[in-house]
Amino acid sequence: MPMRERHAFSSPRDAGEGFILKETTMALGYAADALTTPEFDADGFRRLGRFLLRPLWLAPVACALIVTTLYPFVFLVALSLSKSSLGKPFRAFAGLKNYALALGDGEFIASLLRTVAYALLSSAIQVAAGLALALLLFTLLKGGRFLLSLFLLPLMTPPVMVGVAWKLILAPAGGLLNGTLLRLGLVDEPVSFLGSAALAWASIALADLWQWTPFVAILCFAALSSLPEGVDDAARLDGAGPFERFWYITLPLIAAPLAAIFLIKLIFAFKLFDLTYILTYGGPGFATTTTGFSIFRLSMQQFEVARAAAETLIFAALIGLVTLPVVRLHRALERREA
Amino acid sequence: MRRRFDHRLPLAAIALAFFALPILYLASLSFKTKDDVLSGAFLPGTVTLANWAQAFEAAPLSTFTVNSVTVALLSGLLTVLITVPAAYAVLRLRYGWQRLSDVTLSSFMAPPIVAIIPLFYLLKGAGLLNTVAGLVLVYGMVNVPVAYWLITPFLRRVPVELEQAAELDGAGPLRRLVSIVLPLIAPGLAATGLIVTILAYNEFLFASVFTFGNETRTLPVGISLFQGDRLVNFGQMAAASLTGIVPVYLVALFLQRFLVQGLAHGGIK
User: How many domains does chain A have?
Assistant: First the structure.
């Protein structure tokens, strides 16, 4: 019988440089074991077979990643260097002309700034609101858990329907908010919430907050649940008030998960599309046109896919640039904890 | 024992009211008459069912629903089938490239708009534009990082000893996955499957670009077109939107146990 011990669990960290060499040696080892055993060794052949089938386990995910991530990036790079329209891609080589067009377009640059500002601001507000909600539910104990599952519903609501619901609430004629404000005498005539830049952004932010804060709260709730018991009680016995206990004890302890939650929310904030599509369609004017929305219109309505490809790559680079410091912060906080 | 009034309860009630408001308002609107809508009041003055009938007449809502449910279920299944064996192989069997976890997760950072033009040409080339199958394939693959992220903590928590014992008894990796690991991570599997299914059901951007006929459109796309229609009134829009919302809410209410668990565990580790 073969003597080699090859436990799948024995090498937890075998990533990296010697990987291919190591895998090849192992395959040869299995083959040698199977072939050098005097009597026919079914076990050895089975082990060799299993070893050779290993790539099949990973192939589907690798395939999905290639189709959804690697291929799009390669395709976009090629497309951005070409002269193309939606119906006739890759008509000629255009060099960096599309990038020059994109970067020279004030409206595109403005959309980038809007998108980044909105993503950072809305994520910060939602993490604060989500944490407040989680603290509220956490201290309510049993009832909190029940409410937590009710708060799942906004997250589960299709974003298009969230947009429709808020559009109906905010509508100038017959909207719930205007109806209420008029009845209370707070305004004399209906406010056009989606008609001015500032109010339109506030409306999007409100619908966004409605949809995502419960998710943030669930994550915060999980972070709070993992805190060691007793620290809070000890501080209470020492006479620390609720605000002091939160600021000096709870907050430092959940800083690392909180940074992770902010990162997750930031990633989602950059994906904002459906709400602007339904609520404002990028308007009034271009006031709420995010980069994602402008790329959508440029490629699918004006068919300028080459320039849209250049804009997409610039956008992706910017997202990386903005999220990197958050990733760093999260790592630093985790290290401090360890 | 003396009971003091808990000042947190009204706060919780306000939060609950805020999060329930849009859905309750949709429900109320869907039963309002055309004139009643203009009052801007929360509750309907007179209750009518006309909006529901008219909404189903104005748009093929039942076709949209069938499309949405089909796409969501099939793509959810596809995502789980793609992800779970690979996550198990990487995390527990230590097969292959260990950095696959990081790569999978970081591929989730890019917004879907990045993939829209390349996937458009890919589907066009494959003859899958404007087909339900095309959407199933796209969602099935796009949601893989989410599923990977959700299932990871569940896989990590399966005791290694159980598997080692099975390995000594001669069980191969596939056998161990099916008869030992999968039963143990069943709640995580349910949560993961549910969440990716709901993500697919809710998706709008890909569906709006990759389908362009009523026979393939999903509910979010159908309703986005509905709301641009000047002839459609608020009540019908509310009824149509609720038609799209009700299936997810039913699923969420019946299976909330798995959902909270999946989201809370998957989140922060």
Answer: 2
